[in-house]
Design a protein that fits this description.
Length: 180
Amino acid sequence: MNILVIDSCHESLFVGIANSSFSKLHGGKRDFDRYVTPLIGDVMKMAGLSFGELDAYAVVAGPGSWTGSRVGVVSTLGLVTANPKPIIELNTLDIIGYGTDKSVALYCYGNQYYTKVNGEYKFGEIEDVNKYLTMKPYIDKKYLENLNKMVLEKFGKAEFTIPQNLTPNYIADFEPNKKR
């Protein structure tokens, strides 16, 4: 199976083919909108695939970087418009905590975190981050392993999202002029 995976919710941008070694990671500036399309092209070329050979698209819709979440979602919607395939929507907190029942926290800003506790997603301050399973602000090997497992599991169960329902997962309601 050939599933194109996009994750732009972090300090780095990941594009890859699930269950393969064909992937690219872009770190540095968060101007992912400039890099996502070329990285998709690079990964497809590395894998020797045409878009018609893809079985699905997978995208991490958030939470994470506000703009990054939108870049991944919009890129996926553009791909689906040009080459209709099923969409697998993923949640960053579910990926971090994959295979465990531990509470999960993802840093946002200040003392604010996205959290998942007992299956409930929240945004706000937490007292002791050490009580949570967390990740670095960049994508690491464990995160990519969990991402790959979740993509394959959701594909196997045909857990797909229709394009009209694919939106960035912010968890929190942000006010445009709120000072951080």
